[in-house]
Amino acid sequence: EYTFSHTIEEEKSETPITKDIISSKAKTAVLILLVCLLSVIIATGWNYIAPDKLINSIQKGLSGNNGEDFPTAIAGKKISNGNFQYESGYLTYVSDTSLICLNKSAGKVVDRPISFSQPALKISGDNILTYNVNGKGFQVDSAGETKIKNELESAIIQGDIANNGVYAFITTADGYLSKLTVLDSSNKQIYSYYFADYYATSMTVNQSGTQAAVAAVTSSDGDFKSVLYVLDFTKEEPVATIDMGKTLIYSCEFM
User: From CA 58, how far away is CA 78, in angstroms rounded?
Assistant: First the structure.
């Protein structure tokens, strides 16, 4: 008796891994990593590389390179207290006649006429806010241009501006003691708050342009009393009201 057996082995066909395939996969992985890295850089640094920021940086770099170093003569005849500010390597001041921004060699980066009788100055990033105390006029400048030049309906007590271009004023107001008005970078009003019991004396806006702190004062029984309001621009009522007692608040700033 004969027994026949036959084993059939299936042949497995494998595609050989070549250097070209490895190189192609490595290039794809590197490309994905580069795209992710670029996305992170753009997301975190947009405030510095946005088109308007780049234009301002280029204009600052190209202008004002011919300064004769400090000391240098001021423009105009008078500069009020608080109207000198140093920001991002530039010295900016507003006099009775001009808005001036100087680089490290005293070269003029900005030189624009001002027609305010009592000018005041606030700077945040590339934004320069100049306004007329007890007047109605104001303007917002950058290194490249005057972005906004306008007037409010009531007399300005104080103003401030945020990094993103949102700016605010406390003013007088008909029927109330004071008013807070907030406008965005396109000069559109986005928030307002009326003070019925206190006179607003000082204010500041946070750097993201979402909140303001306002110092206010009132009199009672021949004495004064101060209150600090914290206002969120998405809420009608203050998020905090802090009784400061018999402390007169000269200035307030977000830390």
Answer: 31
The sign of the torsion formed by the CA atoms of 60, 64, 67, 71 equals negative
Spatial CB neighbours of 79, under 8 Å, sequence gap ≥ 6: 93, 94, 95, 96
Cα torsion at 87, 188, 176, 211 (round to 10°)?
Answer: -50
How far, in Å, CA of 234 to CA of 37, rounded?
34
User: Which of 229, 198, 85, 212 minimizes the C-alpha distance to 159?
Assistant: 212
Asked if 228 contacts 201 with a C-beta cutoff of 8 angstroms, the reply is: no
Distance CA 187, CA 70 (A): 36
d(CA 241, CA 41) in angstroms, rounded, equals 39
Torsion sign (Cα): 150, 156, 162, 167:
negative
- The CA distance from 190 to 166, in Å, is 9
For 189-232, what is each residue's pLDDT tens digit?
999 999 999 999 999 999 999 999 999 999 878 889 999 999 99
2 Cβ contact partners less than 8 Å away, ≥ 6 residues apart = none
For residue 146, what is the enclosing H or E element?
strand 146-151
The residue written with tokens 């009003």 in the block is 189
**pTM over 0.70, yes/no:** yes
